[in-house]
Design brief:
Layout: H1 3-21, H2 36-56, H3 66-73, H4 77-83, H5 87-113, H6 118-133, H7 137-146, H8 152-178, H9 188-206, H10 214-240
Helix pairs in contact: 2-3, 2-5, 2-7, 5-6, 5-7, 6-10, 7-9, 8-9, 9-10
Length: 263
């Protein structure tokens, strides 16, 4: 898809659209009881909703044109370009929006589970993440399917978000190790491996390559997380009895639940 091509096609019809629909860029003052900022925010929200529908439940990002988004939003192409430079900008915003929803779902639960034992705590935090990331099938498709391979720019955004949460997981694991909850070690590989598993399985599930319910997907990922945690506890007990063995890492009782960032 070419945003340049879309822009060229749209430029020849924008003035006609605006003249017919009366969608000339509004003045900075109040109109219809709403400020210019309020009207702009409403237009942006309509474009985001249209993108969520088209990318997440319709033909997908690669088969969507700017004119399709404008038609779905009931707005003109001129108004689109007041909010976004390209269609890719819209996808980028949606990707961050979906990730923020999943992140907030975990942050909302975190204060309620701080007192729990590691297994129960990790279980509830990961289920909160999964509920946020899959609350709407459109979220799952955008975060784990549509964002992949679009451009170097979006690859950087996707990987930057993942790296940010790898750092977060490592911080939580280090904190747990400092309090004796798990055996100390470099946890970066452990965190990256689990995040990769989430992204891979979520992608395959979203595109229909894995025939399973959401609960089955979540349970399978929890088996990996909790299995690592339980193995750590057993090895820690053995070492406490004087039996030697290499350190084994597991998820943190401090809430080390990854936020994959999609893809």
């Amino acid at each position: 898809m070419s945003d340049t091509r879309d822009k060229a096609q749209n430029s020849s019809i924008t003035d006609a659209e605006d003249a017919v629909a009366g969608r000339i860029t509004p003045a900075a003052g109040r109109y219809g009881g709403r400020s210019a900022a309020e009207r702009q925010a409403e237009r942006r929200e309509r474009f985001l909703k249209a993108g969520l529908d088209l990318f997440g439940a319709g033909p997908g990002y690669r088969a969507t044109r700017i004119t399709d988004v404008c038609r779905a939003a009931g707005l003109s192409s001129r108004q689109f370009y007041e909010e976004f430079h390209t269609l890719e900008d819209l996808l980028a915003d949606l990707h961050l929006h979906v990730n923020d929803i999943a992140q907030q779902a975990v942050l909302d639960v975190l204060p309620q589970v701080r007192h729990l034992e590691p297994i129960d705590r990790c279980t509830q935090l990961f289920r909160a993440y999964a509920a946020g990331a899959t609350a709407d099938p459109r979220y799952t498709r955008i975060a784990f399917v549509e964002i992949i391979g679009v451009s170097p720019r979006l690859d950087r955004q996707r990987l930057d978000r993942r790296a940010r949460w790898i750092d977060f997981v490592c911080e939580q694991l280090d904190d747990a190790a400092g309090h004796g909850g798990i055996v100390p070690r470099d946890f970066r590989v452990t965190a990256a491996a689990f995040i990769g598993a989430i992204n891979g399985l979520m992608h395959d599930w979203a595109v229909g390559w894995v025939d399973a319910t959401r609960d089955q997907i979540v349970d399978e990922l929890l088996l990996m997380l909790l299995g690592r945690l339980q193995a750590t506890g057993e090895r820690g007990d053995a070492q406490g009895d004087g039996e030697a063995g290499p350190p084994v890492a597991g998820p943190s009782p401090a809430g080390a639940v990854p936020f994959p960032g999609g893809g």
